[in-house]
Design brief:
It is a single chain. The chain has ten helices and eight strands. By secondary structure, the protein is of the alpha/beta class. An eight-stranded mixed β-sheet has the order 3-4-2-5-1-6-7-8, sandwiched between helices. The longest helix has 15 residues, at 146-160. Bound molecules: adenosine-5'-diphosphate and magnesium ion.
């Protein structure tokens, strides 16, 4: 049976889709069989971020409405053959999709996979419920900004009512230069505030803003290992900005 993990946040634009896609790809690269399900029926951009939008034939609505079987709707990733993408509605974006229907599709796939990641939409309304109801574990993604933290906290309050087995935190878009100069909350402080164990830390990095799955950031290696082993090895975002050369990098970053 697959571990079904929803990637959620409350706020939009903090990196849910990025984390879901890259983490799923890293686990697939390590030999795990992974499904990545786009449960964001509004923006549905998992296919673009994963670089498979040209390969979409069927989507999850086609499965729910009986036009194909769940396995037929899976897009096998050309670069990561253990990664299968299940896109959200392209054919019928306005169609109502019930939480139960999504859960049934994922439960059908579960016995043949090790992980199913569910990419959650922003907000805490119906789309949130649909994504979370199908999951057994949750990864909460936040950036260090106050508004993202507030939304993550709201999402967390709701998540607790679902009785998920595991909740963990990814702090994204962390600026090592600001951490070194003590100008922002550290990921550990954020984890303490939200009372969640840290699964990973991701720096703000232009390569992650390119919206394509070309190279995997080393932080995802650690995150994937943490997910598999329960350990807590975290990427050091400050290292680049420490020491003599680090001071120069900080000064340069500040002048940008
Ligand atoms: N660590 C990062 N550094 C730089 N850009 C990032 C990072 N994480 C995400 N992004 C970019 O931020 C934007 C929003 O990310 P996305 O994953 O779509 O957020 P969400 O799914 O939470 O709405 C995307 O353009 C993405 O490429
Ligand atoms: Mg998204």
């Amino acid at each position: 049976m697959a571990r079904k993990i929803v990637v959620t946040s409350g706020k939009g634009g903090v990196g849910k889709t990025t984390v879901a896609v890259h983490l799923a790809a890293r686990l697939a690269q390590k030999g795990q069989r992974v499904v990545l399900c786009d449960a964001d029926f509004g923006l549905n951009n998992v296919d673009v971020t994963a670089g498979v939008e040209e390969l979409v034939t069927y989507d999850v609505v086609d499965v729910i409405e009986g036009r194909c079987r769940a396995k037929q709707a899976l897009i096998r990733h050309p670069k990561y053959p253990n990664l299968y993408v299940l896109t959200s509605s392209h054919s019928a974006p306005e169609r109502y999709v019930s939480p139960q229907a999504v859960k049934v599709v994922l439960d059908t796939l579960s016995p043949q996979f090790d992980f199913i990641f569910i990419d959650c939409p922003a907000g805490i309304d119906e789309g949130f419920h649909r994504a979370v109801a199908a999951a057994e574990e949750a990864i909460v993604v936040t950036s260090p900004s106050v508004s993202a933290l507030r939304d993550a906290n709201r999402a967390l309050t709701l998540l607790k009512s679902y009785r998920l087995q595991t909740l963990s935190l990814v702090v994204n878009m962390v600026r090592g230069d600001l951490l070194v100069s003590g100008e922002c909350l550290t990921p550990i402080q954020i984890a303490d505030l939200l009372k969640l164990p840290l699964l990973g830390i991701l720096p703000e990095d232009y390569r992650l803003s390119e919206n394509e799955l070309s190279s995997l950031h080393p932080s995802f290696r650690m995150m994937a290992n943490n997910l598999l082993t329960g350990k807590q090895k975290l990427y050091d975002v400050e290292r680049k900005y420490s020491g003599l050369f680090g001071n120069v990098r900080r000064a340069l970053k500040r002048s940008l």
